[in-house]
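I had to read the description of the data format several times before I understood it. For illustration, here is how one protein appears when written out as sequence plus structure tokens:
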Amino acid sequence: MEEKRLKELLREVIGEVFEEKTAIFATKDDLRAFTTKDDLKAFATKDDLKAFATKDDLKAFATKDDLKAFATKDDLKAFATKDDLKAFATKDDLKAFITKEEFLEFERRLTNALNGIREGVRLSLYEIEKRLGEIESKLRFYDFNFVVNQNDAIMRTMKDIYIRN
């Protein structure tokens, strides 16, 4: 009888262990609470997916090779940055310089000043020419031959005095 009792005990223990182990698995009733065939009908079918992009549609998009034609970050490093441009003059810096209108006004004033100076020099030369004309007319009355002869006579007299002494 012990053998019989042992068999029963083994069956009970194995049954309990089996019940414990099977308790963690889902039962048919448990599975009914999950998605049903009707629920699955709400998902997209193969025909539904055909409305989306196909392989041919995707060919219209850029490939990696197509993108190689565009500038990369390394390519862009060759261009000037904002910091590089800080060394150059800005609009505000250029405001310190003369504008075209201001230059034209300066040129006009300078031309007027030069014309005034030119007129002043012309009038001065006219006065000098007038005075030279007066001197020339006075010199016409002098007999230069007489003056030269007197100078020659004075020179001879001085030479004689110098040699005697």
Notes: Residues 100-164 form one domain. Residues 115 and 121 are 10 Å apart (CA to CA).
